[in-house]
Amino acid sequence: MRDRILKNWTLARGFYVLVGTIIIVNSYMDEQWYGILFGAYFAAMGVFSFGCASGNCAGGNCEVKPTSKEDNPT
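RE: above sequence
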């Protein structure tokens, strides 16, 4: 878990943390308490690298290996 938080930071992850933090702060200032949960979700996606912020499905489960012409003759 520690490696997942500290390594492989991308611009997208930083963007999710930034947007989530902005949503949390604005929701708190406007006393829109449900918005804090919404912002926390986006910030957590960036910090913990899950969901859309992970880049390639966090664990590589969605990785598609390219096939060669030898494997697929046409």
